[in-house]
């Protein structure tokens, strides 16, 4: 179907931060399949885990115990300070589970028309419920009637959320600790802690969508860990298994008890192959200190861009945390993704005017230098054409 606008290239193989197309041309991947391949391409630990598991067992069913799923759940619970995990195959499904948990939580409190507070500019997925929770009107176009039960407020505006304190139907707040699709938006330092307090005071669940910001990308396992905030429900996907489809909805406290037998499920969710790959990813991030690398390389990239782009009026802001980096221009710049491709560099433009960089967590300084040089040159040329 014609639902994707594709760039004219097709990749055949990859190694580390690099990809090769079908004509043998080499490209630097500064996007990681949109925050998926944190360990880069063809990482030996992941390849080995997948190959070995393929020879053992791919799939049984969630009607049986799955030891690797339990191992992965224990690892995730330890890293995220949660108690239980539901596994699925994508980010949208992880968020669907979170929304269903919030609805059940509402019913447990005799709230039959549960409302979840969501944010302008948010992106939570493309299924009907997650689309309804998404704060991007273009993504919703033509899909009405949407799922009811979401109230949208401006991001990074605690007062806007607080106005719902008197609304008896609110059961949860759903938020990205760093908005990805919305343009790499990082809230004020006190926003998430205040949101946590507001949720606790009002008996609302705090749901953090860490699908783009999680698994080391921001320099910590979770984006919310930078502000010491612990959510009731956390969703993960993208970087969790480096390209093998997986999603996870983690919960603790009352939220961890909402889905009983038969209340939710997934045929493929948490199968041995995906869990084995995810365990290899987590082990490698830990063993190779990749979160520290993400933090160091992220700062290096930001400083490099600040130096190279200083004084350029077209550049509104350079921002980021770890290897989630956005360069906001003061004009739409979607064409820059193709222009970068022509220079053998993969980048992306989101929210119309934000150049988004999500390189692998294994990025080396020489590769960061190439990203700074190539992207800065592109922006400088673009600025010349737009004056
Ligand atoms: C923050 C966030 N949530 C949810 C999703 C949806 O994930 P998926 O495409 O795996 O369904 C995305 C995808 O971009 C995302 O960035």
What can you see in these coordinates?
- There is one protein chain.
- This protein has 387 residues and is of the alpha/beta class.
- The chain folds into two domains: 11-30 and 289-385, Alpha-Beta Complex (Aspartate Aminotransferase, domain 1); 44-287, 3-Layer(aba) Sandwich (Aspartate Aminotransferase, domain 2), CATH 3.40.640.10.
- It has twelve helices and 15 strands.
- The strands form three sheets. The protein has a seven-stranded mixed β-sheet with strand order 4-10-9-8-7-5-6, with helices on both faces. Strands 1-2-3-13 form a four-stranded mixed β-sheet. Strands 11-12-15-14 form a four-stranded antiparallel β-sheet, with helices on one face.
- The chain starts with 10 loop residues before the first strand and ends with a helix.
- It binds pyridoxal-5'-phosphate (PLP).
- Residues 90-92, 95, 123-125, 176, 180-181, 209, 211-212, 237 line the site of pyridoxal-5'-phosphate.
Key features of this structure:
four-stranded mixed beta sheet; Aspartate Aminotransferase, domain 2; Aspartate Aminotransferase, domain 1; globular; alpha/beta; 15 strands; binds pyridoxal-5'-phosphate; single chain; 12 helices; 387 residues; seven-stranded mixed beta sheet
Query: How many separate helices?
Result: 12
> Which parts are unreliable, with pLDDT below 50 for 5 consecutive residues or more?
none
SS content category: alpha/beta
Topology as H/E string?
A: EEEHHHEHEHHEHEHEEEHHEEHEEEH
Rg over alpha carbons: 21 Å
Strand content: 15-25%
CATH architectural type of the largest domain: 3-Layer(aba) Sandwich
Q: Could you tell me which ligands this complex binds, including any ions or cofactors?
A: pyridoxal-5'-phosphate
- Mean of all residue-level pLDDT scores: 98
Report the major sheet: 7 strands, mixed
- What's the helical proportion of residues? 25-40%
